Here is the input.
Amino acid sequence: MQSFNMSFQPSAFRLPTPAVMRFPSVQMTPPSLSAPLSLNLAPMLRAGFLPSGTPGAGTALLREQAFSPMKEEALTTALSMMKTPLTKENVALAKSMVQSGVPLTKENMADLKASLSSLPTNGSGTMQAASFLKSAALPLTSQNITLLSNFIAANPYIGACIFEFNKEFKKLRDGGKFQISAERMGILSKASSMLGEMVMNSKSGLGANVKAFRKTAGNSGMELPNFMMGARDEEFDSLMQALRKILFSDKNSAAEAMKNAFLKLDEALLAQRLINGAKREGLDNFYYFQLPLVFGDSELTAEFKVFYTTDYTGRQYVDPDNFEFEFIVPSIHIGNVHFKGTVSSGIVNIAAGFASQQLCAFAEKFMPILLDRLQEVGFTSGNYSVFLSSENPLMAIDGDDFAEMESVDMSF
Amino acid sequence: MEEKKAVLLAKDESGRERVVLEASGDAAEELVAEAKKANVDVLKDADALRSFPEKAQSEEFDSQERPDRLSVLAYELYRFTEELDNLWSSGKI
Here is the structure.
Protein backbone atom coordinates (compact mmCIF):
# COMPACT_ATOMS: atom_id res chain seq x y z
CA MET A 1 0.00 0.00 0.00
CA GLN A 2 1.31 3.45 -0.81
CA SER A 3 0.75 6.86 0.78
CA PHE A 4 -2.29 8.56 -0.62
CA ASN A 5 -4.20 11.79 -0.27
CA MET A 6 -7.83 12.26 -1.16
CA SER A 7 -10.24 15.14 -0.70
CA PHE A 8 -12.84 13.34 1.40
CA GLN A 9 -14.22 14.51 4.73
CA PRO A 10 -13.91 11.46 7.00
CA SER A 11 -16.34 12.74 9.59
CA ALA A 12 -19.14 12.68 7.04
CA PHE A 13 -18.71 8.96 6.54
CA ARG A 14 -18.08 7.60 10.03
CA LEU A 15 -19.80 4.32 10.63
CA PRO A 16 -22.13 3.95 13.58
CA THR A 17 -20.59 2.10 16.51
CA PRO A 18 -23.22 0.50 18.70
CA ALA A 19 -22.02 0.33 22.29
CA VAL A 20 -22.20 -2.90 24.23
CA MET A 21 -24.60 -2.42 27.11
CA ARG A 22 -25.43 -5.28 29.42
CA PHE A 23 -27.84 -5.28 32.29
CA PRO A 24 -28.87 -7.86 34.85
CA SER A 25 -31.38 -10.18 33.27
CA VAL A 26 -34.97 -9.72 34.35
CA GLN A 27 -37.63 -12.11 33.15
CA MET A 28 -41.16 -11.12 34.01
CA THR A 29 -43.39 -13.65 32.35
CA PRO A 30 -46.40 -14.31 34.56
CA PRO A 31 -47.33 -17.99 34.23
CA SER A 32 -50.87 -17.35 35.29
CA LEU A 33 -52.68 -15.08 37.67
CA SER A 34 -52.05 -15.79 41.32
CA ALA A 35 -49.03 -18.02 40.70
CA PRO A 36 -45.62 -17.19 42.16
CA LEU A 37 -43.36 -15.67 39.52
CA SER A 38 -39.73 -16.53 38.89
CA LEU A 39 -37.33 -13.65 38.60
CA ASN A 40 -33.61 -13.27 38.45
CA LEU A 41 -32.88 -9.88 39.87
CA ALA A 42 -29.86 -7.83 40.69
CA PRO A 43 -29.97 -6.48 44.24
CA MET A 44 -30.32 -2.96 42.85
CA LEU A 45 -33.66 -3.74 41.28
CA ARG A 46 -36.51 -4.06 43.73
CA ALA A 47 -39.77 -3.71 41.87
CA GLY A 48 -42.68 -5.75 43.10
CA PHE A 49 -46.39 -6.10 43.71
CA LEU A 50 -48.21 -5.88 46.99
CA PRO A 51 -49.91 -9.10 48.08
CA SER A 52 -53.67 -9.27 48.20
CA GLY A 53 -55.35 -7.79 51.22
CA THR A 54 -52.79 -5.01 51.47
CA PRO A 55 -53.95 -1.42 51.01
CA GLY A 56 -53.19 -0.54 47.40
CA ALA A 57 -53.26 -4.16 46.31
CA GLY A 58 -53.57 -4.68 42.58
CA THR A 59 -51.33 -1.74 41.78
CA ALA A 60 -47.71 -2.21 40.89
CA LEU A 61 -45.62 -0.35 43.43
CA LEU A 62 -41.99 -0.06 44.27
CA ARG A 63 -41.05 -1.22 47.70
CA GLU A 64 -38.24 -2.90 49.58
CA GLN A 65 -38.22 -6.61 50.44
CA ALA A 66 -40.89 -7.60 47.92
CA PHE A 67 -38.77 -10.56 46.91
CA SER A 68 -37.62 -13.65 48.68
CA PRO A 69 -35.04 -16.27 47.70
CA MET A 70 -36.41 -18.81 45.24
CA LYS A 71 -37.22 -22.14 46.86
CA GLU A 72 -38.66 -25.35 45.54
CA GLU A 73 -41.83 -24.58 47.50
CA ALA A 74 -42.52 -21.77 45.03
CA LEU A 75 -42.48 -24.33 42.24
CA THR A 76 -44.74 -26.75 44.05
CA THR A 77 -47.18 -23.94 44.83
CA ALA A 78 -47.20 -22.94 41.16
CA LEU A 79 -47.77 -26.53 40.08
CA SER A 80 -50.61 -26.92 42.58
CA MET A 81 -52.25 -23.78 41.24
CA MET A 82 -51.92 -25.22 37.73
CA LYS A 83 -53.55 -28.41 39.03
CA THR A 84 -50.47 -30.37 37.97
CA PRO A 85 -49.52 -33.45 40.03
CA LEU A 86 -46.55 -32.80 42.31
CA THR A 87 -44.41 -35.65 41.01
CA LYS A 88 -40.63 -35.55 41.17
CA GLU A 89 -40.47 -35.32 37.35
CA ASN A 90 -42.93 -32.40 37.20
CA VAL A 91 -41.01 -30.43 39.82
CA ALA A 92 -37.72 -31.10 38.00
CA LEU A 93 -39.21 -30.01 34.69
CA ALA A 94 -40.71 -26.87 36.25
CA LYS A 95 -37.31 -26.05 37.73
CA SER A 96 -35.54 -26.40 34.38
CA MET A 97 -38.23 -24.25 32.72
CA VAL A 98 -37.78 -21.49 35.29
CA GLN A 99 -33.98 -21.62 34.91
CA SER A 100 -34.23 -21.35 31.12
CA GLY A 101 -36.75 -18.53 31.28
CA VAL A 102 -39.64 -20.54 29.86
CA PRO A 103 -42.95 -19.23 31.25
CA LEU A 104 -44.30 -21.80 33.70
CA THR A 105 -47.69 -22.43 32.17
CA LYS A 106 -49.70 -25.59 31.81
CA GLU A 107 -49.46 -25.35 28.02
CA ASN A 108 -45.68 -24.97 27.96
CA MET A 109 -45.30 -27.82 30.38
CA ALA A 110 -47.53 -30.06 28.27
CA ASP A 111 -45.49 -29.22 25.15
CA LEU A 112 -42.25 -30.14 26.86
CA LYS A 113 -43.65 -33.31 28.38
CA ALA A 114 -44.95 -34.45 25.01
CA SER A 115 -41.52 -33.94 23.43
CA LEU A 116 -39.72 -35.64 26.29
CA SER A 117 -42.09 -38.62 26.33
CA SER A 118 -40.67 -39.86 23.02
CA LEU A 119 -37.19 -40.17 24.52
CA PRO A 120 -35.96 -43.28 26.31
CA THR A 121 -34.79 -41.34 29.39
CA ASN A 122 -35.82 -38.02 30.90
CA GLY A 123 -32.90 -36.94 33.03
CA SER A 124 -32.11 -33.38 34.05
CA GLY A 125 -29.89 -33.03 30.94
CA THR A 126 -32.76 -33.76 28.55
CA MET A 127 -35.08 -31.43 30.49
CA GLN A 128 -32.48 -28.66 30.35
CA ALA A 129 -31.98 -29.21 26.61
CA ALA A 130 -35.72 -29.23 25.93
CA SER A 131 -36.27 -26.08 28.01
CA PHE A 132 -33.47 -24.31 26.14
CA LEU A 133 -35.01 -25.23 22.78
CA LYS A 134 -38.40 -24.00 23.98
CA SER A 135 -36.98 -20.70 25.28
CA ALA A 136 -35.09 -20.18 21.99
CA ALA A 137 -38.16 -21.05 19.89
CA LEU A 138 -36.23 -23.89 18.21
CA PRO A 139 -37.94 -27.11 17.07
CA LEU A 140 -38.64 -29.41 20.05
CA THR A 141 -37.73 -32.59 18.20
CA SER A 142 -36.35 -35.73 19.83
CA GLN A 143 -33.26 -35.39 17.67
CA ASN A 144 -32.56 -31.82 18.82
CA ILE A 145 -33.14 -32.68 22.48
CA THR A 146 -30.85 -35.71 22.32
CA LEU A 147 -28.18 -33.81 20.39
CA LEU A 148 -28.10 -31.00 22.93
CA SER A 149 -28.30 -33.16 26.05
CA ASN A 150 -25.48 -35.42 24.81
CA PHE A 151 -23.39 -32.36 24.07
CA ILE A 152 -23.97 -30.85 27.50
CA ALA A 153 -23.21 -34.13 29.27
CA ALA A 154 -19.91 -34.71 27.45
CA ASN A 155 -18.82 -31.08 27.23
CA PRO A 156 -16.12 -30.18 26.23
CA TYR A 157 -14.61 -32.60 23.79
CA ILE A 158 -14.47 -31.38 20.19
CA GLY A 159 -10.67 -31.29 20.19
CA ALA A 160 -10.43 -34.95 21.25
CA CYS A 161 -12.79 -35.95 18.40
CA ILE A 162 -10.69 -34.18 15.76
CA PHE A 163 -7.45 -35.63 17.06
CA GLU A 164 -8.91 -39.12 17.34
CA PHE A 165 -10.35 -38.94 13.84
CA ASN A 166 -7.08 -37.82 12.30
CA LYS A 167 -5.02 -40.33 14.29
CA GLU A 168 -7.25 -43.23 13.21
CA PHE A 169 -7.34 -42.04 9.61
CA LYS A 170 -3.53 -41.95 9.39
CA LYS A 171 -3.29 -45.36 11.04
CA LEU A 172 -5.66 -46.90 8.48
CA ARG A 173 -4.15 -45.08 5.51
CA ASP A 174 -0.59 -46.01 6.40
CA GLY A 175 -1.39 -49.53 7.63
CA GLY A 176 -2.88 -50.62 4.30
CA LYS A 177 -5.87 -52.28 6.01
CA PHE A 178 -8.45 -49.83 4.77
CA GLN A 179 -10.41 -51.25 1.82
CA ILE A 180 -11.55 -48.10 0.09
CA SER A 181 -11.40 -46.62 -3.41
CA ALA A 182 -8.76 -44.04 -4.30
CA GLU A 183 -11.49 -41.44 -4.81
CA ARG A 184 -12.93 -42.01 -1.34
CA MET A 185 -9.47 -42.04 0.18
CA GLY A 186 -8.92 -38.65 -1.45
CA ILE A 187 -12.07 -37.27 0.20
CA LEU A 188 -11.02 -38.64 3.58
CA SER A 189 -7.56 -37.18 3.17
CA LYS A 190 -8.97 -33.76 2.31
CA ALA A 191 -11.37 -33.90 5.25
CA SER A 192 -8.57 -34.86 7.59
CA SER A 193 -6.44 -31.89 6.59
CA MET A 194 -9.46 -29.56 6.69
CA LEU A 195 -10.19 -30.63 10.27
CA GLY A 196 -6.52 -30.10 11.09
CA GLU A 197 -6.86 -26.48 9.94
CA MET A 198 -9.35 -25.89 12.77
CA VAL A 199 -6.69 -26.61 15.41
CA MET A 200 -4.77 -23.74 17.02
CA ASN A 201 -1.08 -24.39 17.47
CA SER A 202 1.33 -21.92 19.02
CA LYS A 203 4.11 -23.33 16.85
CA SER A 204 2.29 -22.03 13.77
CA GLY A 205 2.25 -18.33 12.98
CA LEU A 206 -0.41 -15.77 13.83
CA GLY A 207 -2.05 -16.07 10.40
CA ALA A 208 -2.61 -19.83 10.68
CA ASN A 209 -4.06 -19.40 14.18
CA VAL A 210 -6.38 -16.62 13.07
CA LYS A 211 -7.60 -18.90 10.31
CA ALA A 212 -8.08 -21.81 12.73
CA PHE A 213 -10.05 -19.64 15.16
CA ARG A 214 -12.30 -18.30 12.39
CA LYS A 215 -12.89 -21.69 10.79
CA THR A 216 -13.86 -23.30 14.09
CA ALA A 217 -16.08 -20.37 15.02
CA GLY A 218 -17.81 -20.43 11.63
CA ASN A 219 -18.22 -24.21 11.59
CA SER A 220 -19.78 -23.95 15.05
CA GLY A 221 -22.43 -21.56 13.80
CA MET A 222 -20.98 -18.25 14.96
CA GLU A 223 -21.93 -15.50 12.52
CA LEU A 224 -19.95 -12.29 12.79
CA PRO A 225 -19.27 -10.93 9.30
CA ASN A 226 -17.38 -7.93 10.67
CA PHE A 227 -14.80 -10.38 12.08
CA MET A 228 -14.86 -12.44 8.87
CA MET A 229 -16.51 -15.29 10.76
CA GLY A 230 -19.48 -17.38 9.79
CA ALA A 231 -19.64 -17.11 6.04
CA ARG A 232 -21.15 -20.46 5.12
CA ASP A 233 -18.24 -22.79 4.39
CA GLU A 234 -19.80 -24.87 1.65
CA GLU A 235 -16.66 -26.91 1.11
CA PHE A 236 -16.62 -27.92 4.77
CA ASP A 237 -20.30 -28.82 4.76
CA SER A 238 -20.05 -30.88 1.58
CA LEU A 239 -16.99 -32.73 2.87
CA MET A 240 -18.78 -33.56 6.12
CA GLN A 241 -21.71 -34.81 4.05
CA ALA A 242 -19.38 -36.97 1.94
CA LEU A 243 -17.74 -38.34 5.09
CA ARG A 244 -21.11 -39.37 6.54
CA LYS A 245 -21.84 -41.23 3.33
CA ILE A 246 -18.46 -42.94 3.14
CA LEU A 247 -18.15 -43.91 6.79
CA PHE A 248 -21.69 -45.07 7.40
CA SER A 249 -22.60 -46.71 4.11
CA ASP A 250 -19.47 -48.85 3.90
CA LYS A 251 -19.22 -51.95 6.03
CA ASN A 252 -15.58 -51.42 6.77
CA SER A 253 -14.97 -52.73 10.26
CA ALA A 254 -11.41 -51.45 10.25
CA ALA A 255 -12.78 -47.92 10.47
CA GLU A 256 -14.87 -48.36 13.65
CA ALA A 257 -12.74 -46.04 15.83
CA MET A 258 -12.68 -43.42 13.10
CA LYS A 259 -16.45 -43.70 12.64
CA ASN A 260 -17.00 -43.16 16.37
CA ALA A 261 -14.74 -40.13 16.47
CA PHE A 262 -16.43 -38.65 13.40
CA LEU A 263 -19.91 -39.29 14.79
CA LYS A 264 -19.08 -37.48 18.04
CA LEU A 265 -17.46 -34.60 16.17
CA ASP A 266 -20.36 -34.27 13.75
CA GLU A 267 -22.87 -34.22 16.61
CA ALA A 268 -20.84 -31.71 18.61
CA LEU A 269 -20.66 -29.33 15.66
CA LEU A 270 -24.38 -29.74 14.96
CA ALA A 271 -25.20 -29.11 18.65
CA GLN A 272 -23.12 -25.95 18.66
CA ARG A 273 -24.79 -24.76 15.47
CA LEU A 274 -28.14 -25.34 17.11
CA ILE A 275 -27.12 -23.39 20.21
CA ASN A 276 -25.58 -20.53 18.21
CA GLY A 277 -28.49 -20.44 15.80
CA ALA A 278 -30.90 -19.56 18.59
CA LYS A 279 -32.32 -16.09 18.19
CA ARG A 280 -33.24 -15.04 21.67
CA GLU A 281 -34.41 -11.76 23.07
CA GLY A 282 -32.59 -10.15 25.93
CA LEU A 283 -29.25 -8.64 26.68
CA ASP A 284 -27.23 -11.60 27.86
CA ASN A 285 -26.93 -13.47 24.58
CA PHE A 286 -23.68 -15.04 23.52
CA TYR A 287 -22.00 -17.26 21.00
CA TYR A 288 -20.26 -20.31 22.39
CA PHE A 289 -17.86 -22.69 20.70
CA GLN A 290 -15.17 -25.24 21.48
CA LEU A 291 -11.72 -24.65 20.11
CA PRO A 292 -9.26 -27.51 19.54
CA LEU A 293 -5.66 -26.63 20.33
CA VAL A 294 -2.25 -28.19 20.69
CA PHE A 295 -0.64 -27.71 24.08
CA GLY A 296 2.90 -28.97 24.32
CA ASP A 297 2.59 -32.54 23.11
CA SER A 298 -1.06 -32.77 24.11
CA GLU A 299 -4.24 -32.10 22.19
CA LEU A 300 -6.86 -30.28 24.21
CA THR A 301 -10.10 -28.33 23.87
CA ALA A 302 -10.61 -24.70 24.88
CA GLU A 303 -13.98 -22.98 25.19
CA PHE A 304 -14.80 -19.50 23.95
CA LYS A 305 -17.81 -17.34 24.63
CA VAL A 306 -18.44 -13.82 23.32
CA PHE A 307 -21.48 -11.73 24.19
CA TYR A 308 -23.26 -10.00 21.35
CA THR A 309 -25.80 -7.28 20.85
CA THR A 310 -28.28 -7.07 18.03
CA ASP A 311 -27.77 -4.27 15.53
CA TYR A 312 -30.43 -2.12 13.89
CA THR A 313 -30.95 -4.69 11.13
CA GLY A 314 -31.64 -7.45 13.69
CA ARG A 315 -28.27 -9.11 13.09
CA GLN A 316 -25.99 -10.29 15.89
CA TYR A 317 -23.20 -7.82 16.33
CA VAL A 318 -19.97 -7.61 18.31
CA ASP A 319 -18.37 -4.19 18.30
CA PRO A 320 -14.57 -4.64 18.04
CA ASP A 321 -14.07 -1.74 20.46
CA ASN A 322 -16.72 -2.77 23.00
CA PHE A 323 -17.29 -6.40 23.84
CA GLU A 324 -17.19 -8.95 26.61
CA PHE A 325 -15.83 -12.49 26.46
CA GLU A 326 -14.85 -15.59 28.42
CA PHE A 327 -12.18 -18.04 27.39
CA ILE A 328 -11.17 -21.22 29.20
CA VAL A 329 -7.75 -22.41 28.10
CA PRO A 330 -6.74 -25.87 29.32
CA SER A 331 -3.14 -26.66 30.19
CA ILE A 332 -1.01 -29.55 31.36
CA HIS A 333 0.33 -28.43 34.74
CA ILE A 334 -1.69 -25.45 35.92
CA GLY A 335 -5.15 -26.72 34.95
CA ASN A 336 -7.77 -24.63 33.21
CA VAL A 337 -7.18 -20.90 33.06
CA HIS A 338 -10.49 -19.05 32.98
CA PHE A 339 -10.15 -15.64 31.34
CA LYS A 340 -12.94 -13.12 31.68
CA GLY A 341 -12.48 -9.88 29.83
CA THR A 342 -14.05 -6.73 28.58
CA VAL A 343 -13.00 -4.36 25.84
CA SER A 344 -14.46 -0.94 26.39
CA SER A 345 -13.66 1.84 23.92
CA GLY A 346 -10.65 -0.25 22.91
CA ILE A 347 -9.39 -0.62 26.51
CA VAL A 348 -8.94 -4.24 27.50
CA ASN A 349 -9.47 -5.44 31.09
CA ILE A 350 -8.64 -9.04 31.93
CA ALA A 351 -9.34 -11.26 34.93
CA ALA A 352 -7.71 -14.69 34.97
CA GLY A 353 -9.08 -17.52 37.11
CA PHE A 354 -6.91 -20.34 38.51
CA ALA A 355 -7.64 -23.42 40.55
CA SER A 356 -5.58 -22.48 43.65
CA GLN A 357 -4.42 -19.45 45.59
CA GLN A 358 -0.85 -20.52 44.92
CA LEU A 359 -1.44 -20.41 41.17
CA CYS A 360 -3.20 -17.05 41.48
CA ALA A 361 -0.19 -15.57 43.31
CA PHE A 362 2.16 -17.07 40.71
CA ALA A 363 0.21 -15.82 37.70
CA GLU A 364 -0.51 -12.36 39.07
CA LYS A 365 3.15 -11.42 38.63
CA PHE A 366 2.91 -12.06 34.90
CA MET A 367 -0.40 -10.38 34.16
CA PRO A 368 1.23 -7.00 33.35
CA ILE A 369 3.20 -8.80 30.64
CA LEU A 370 -0.04 -10.07 29.13
CA LEU A 371 -1.48 -6.56 29.07
CA ASP A 372 1.71 -5.20 27.49
CA ARG A 373 1.38 -7.78 24.73
CA LEU A 374 -2.24 -6.90 24.14
CA GLN A 375 -1.17 -3.27 23.92
CA GLU A 376 1.39 -4.26 21.29
CA VAL A 377 -1.31 -5.81 19.14
CA GLY A 378 -3.58 -2.80 19.17
CA PHE A 379 -5.58 -2.81 22.39
CA THR A 380 -5.25 -0.13 25.03
CA SER A 381 -4.02 -1.69 28.24
CA GLY A 382 -6.53 -1.55 31.11
CA ASN A 383 -6.77 -3.39 34.43
CA TYR A 384 -5.98 -6.96 35.39
CA SER A 385 -6.87 -9.24 38.26
CA VAL A 386 -6.71 -12.92 39.22
CA PHE A 387 -9.36 -14.97 40.94
CA LEU A 388 -9.93 -18.43 42.34
CA SER A 389 -12.00 -20.38 39.84
CA SER A 390 -13.60 -23.78 39.72
CA GLU A 391 -12.70 -26.37 37.13
CA ASN A 392 -16.21 -26.24 35.72
CA PRO A 393 -16.54 -25.84 31.96
CA LEU A 394 -18.24 -22.81 30.46
CA MET A 395 -21.97 -23.08 30.12
CA ALA A 396 -22.91 -23.68 26.50
CA ILE A 397 -26.54 -23.21 27.39
CA ASP A 398 -27.22 -20.38 29.76
CA GLY A 399 -29.55 -21.17 32.58
CA ASP A 400 -29.98 -19.18 35.76
CA ASP A 401 -28.64 -20.63 38.97
CA PHE A 402 -31.74 -21.62 40.87
CA ALA A 403 -30.13 -20.85 44.24
CA GLU A 404 -29.53 -17.25 43.17
CA MET A 405 -33.03 -16.63 41.82
CA GLU A 406 -35.69 -14.70 43.66
CA SER A 407 -39.42 -15.07 43.74
CA VAL A 408 -42.29 -12.70 44.35
CA ASP A 409 -45.93 -13.27 45.20
CA MET A 410 -48.01 -11.89 42.33
CA SER A 411 -51.40 -12.64 43.83
CA PHE A 412 -54.03 -9.86 43.88
CA MET B 1 -29.29 -5.29 0.81
CA GLU B 2 -26.19 -4.78 2.93
CA GLU B 3 -24.60 -1.35 2.76
CA LYS B 4 -21.15 -1.26 1.21
CA LYS B 5 -18.31 0.02 3.31
CA ALA B 6 -14.77 0.97 2.42
CA VAL B 7 -11.68 2.18 4.22
CA LEU B 8 -8.50 3.69 2.99
CA LEU B 9 -5.12 3.08 4.60
CA ALA B 10 -2.07 5.26 4.42
CA LYS B 11 1.37 4.82 5.89
CA ASP B 12 2.52 7.30 8.52
CA GLU B 13 6.08 8.55 9.04
CA SER B 14 7.07 5.33 10.79
CA GLY B 15 5.76 3.22 7.92
CA ARG B 16 2.79 1.92 9.93
CA GLU B 17 -0.53 1.76 8.14
CA ARG B 18 -3.34 3.89 9.52
CA VAL B 19 -6.96 4.26 8.60
CA VAL B 20 -7.31 7.67 7.01
CA LEU B 21 -10.82 7.38 5.69
CA GLU B 22 -13.93 5.31 6.22
CA ALA B 23 -16.91 5.53 3.93
CA SER B 24 -20.17 3.71 3.47
CA GLY B 25 -22.93 3.47 0.87
CA ASP B 26 -22.44 5.59 -2.26
CA ALA B 27 -19.42 7.26 -0.72
CA ALA B 28 -17.78 3.86 -0.39
CA GLU B 29 -18.34 3.18 -4.09
CA GLU B 30 -16.89 6.57 -4.94
CA LEU B 31 -13.90 5.96 -2.72
CA VAL B 32 -13.18 2.62 -4.35
CA ALA B 33 -13.50 4.13 -7.85
CA GLU B 34 -11.17 7.02 -7.02
CA ALA B 35 -8.67 4.69 -5.41
CA LYS B 36 -8.67 2.46 -8.47
CA LYS B 37 -7.86 5.45 -10.67
CA ALA B 38 -4.96 6.29 -8.36
CA ASN B 39 -3.91 2.64 -8.27
CA VAL B 40 -4.15 2.16 -4.50
CA ASP B 41 -5.76 -0.62 -2.49
CA VAL B 42 -8.94 0.00 -0.57
CA LEU B 43 -10.30 -2.56 1.87
CA LYS B 44 -14.04 -2.93 1.54
CA ASP B 45 -14.89 -4.22 4.99
CA ALA B 46 -14.49 -1.23 7.24
CA ASP B 47 -15.53 -2.98 10.44
CA ALA B 48 -13.01 -5.74 9.92
CA LEU B 49 -10.26 -3.27 9.32
CA ARG B 50 -11.16 -1.20 12.34
CA SER B 51 -10.65 -4.31 14.41
CA PHE B 52 -7.18 -5.05 13.12
CA PRO B 53 -4.47 -4.74 15.71
CA GLU B 54 -1.94 -2.16 14.68
CA LYS B 55 0.93 -4.62 14.80
CA ALA B 56 -0.92 -7.01 12.57
CA GLN B 57 -1.67 -4.25 10.08
CA SER B 58 2.02 -3.88 9.38
CA GLU B 59 2.43 -7.57 8.56
CA GLU B 60 1.53 -9.37 5.37
CA PHE B 61 -1.50 -11.66 5.53
CA ASP B 62 -3.81 -13.07 2.94
CA SER B 63 -7.47 -12.14 3.32
CA GLN B 64 -8.35 -15.29 5.30
CA GLU B 65 -5.51 -14.82 7.74
CA ARG B 66 -5.76 -11.09 8.33
CA PRO B 67 -6.20 -10.73 12.09
CA ASP B 68 -9.21 -9.36 13.92
CA ARG B 69 -9.55 -8.48 17.58
CA LEU B 70 -11.30 -11.68 18.68
CA SER B 71 -8.87 -14.09 17.08
CA VAL B 72 -5.79 -12.12 18.16
CA LEU B 73 -7.08 -11.95 21.71
CA ALA B 74 -7.68 -15.71 21.75
CA TYR B 75 -4.23 -16.36 20.29
CA GLU B 76 -2.45 -14.15 22.84
CA LEU B 77 -4.31 -15.69 25.80
CA TYR B 78 -3.53 -19.19 24.55
CA ARG B 79 0.18 -18.33 24.16
CA PHE B 80 0.25 -16.69 27.57
CA THR B 81 -1.29 -19.78 29.21
CA GLU B 82 1.24 -22.05 27.52
CA GLU B 83 4.11 -19.90 28.76
CA LEU B 84 2.73 -19.78 32.31
CA ASP B 85 2.36 -23.55 32.23
CA ASN B 86 5.96 -23.99 31.08
CA LEU B 87 7.27 -21.61 33.75
CA TRP B 88 5.29 -23.34 36.48
CA SER B 89 6.43 -26.82 35.47
CA SER B 90 10.07 -25.78 35.09
CA GLY B 91 10.06 -24.60 38.70
CA LYS B 92 12.25 -21.66 37.75
CA ILE B 93 9.94 -19.11 39.30
Remarks:
- Residues 1-65 of chain A have pLDDT under 50 and may be disordered.
- Chain A touches chain B through 65 residues (CB under 8 Å).
- Chain A is about 40% helix and 20% strand.
- Residues 23 and 283 of chain A are 7 Å apart (CA to CA).
